[in-house]
Amino acid sequence: MLTQIVAPNAVYSMREFxxxxxxxxxxxxxxxxxxLVVAGLDGCLDSLTENDAIAWIETDLKAAVxxxxxxxxxxxxxxxxxxxxxARVGMDLADEEYFWKTSPSRGxxxxxxxxxxxxxxxxxxxxxxxxxxxxxxxxGDAYVGLYHPRIS
Length: 152
Fold this sequence. Notes:
This protein is an alpha/beta fold. 30% of the residues lie in helices and 21% in strands. It contains 5 helices and 8 strands; from the N terminus they run E-H-E-H-H-E-H-E-E-E-H-E-E.
């Protein structure tokens, strides 16, 4: 599915994403030159302590995402690709808050991903479902990601 959006060799690493912030390219490598796919969020979060990961998301990552949005004026897609995303990103059904499940070796802590990155605008998040079924399972195989139109 990823190859329908971008060639594998055009996926940015987190380091490349942060470097690109210095001078965003005019043409992006994915989806008719209006999408950027970034891999490595999971590695960043897994390598930091819980407190450091929360601080990094709230400051560095969110600032980079906002810079991307501002530069492309909301006319380009930024995709944070996580191969194991379905298993690592969860949602509390009671309060609809999204969280990141740290690796089991780190105690399987839950980082408040939605609060940190989307600043409480979790109500605007939609699940991306790809299926030929009329009513695909919200948490099943059709669930391939999350979509947020714009954070602030």
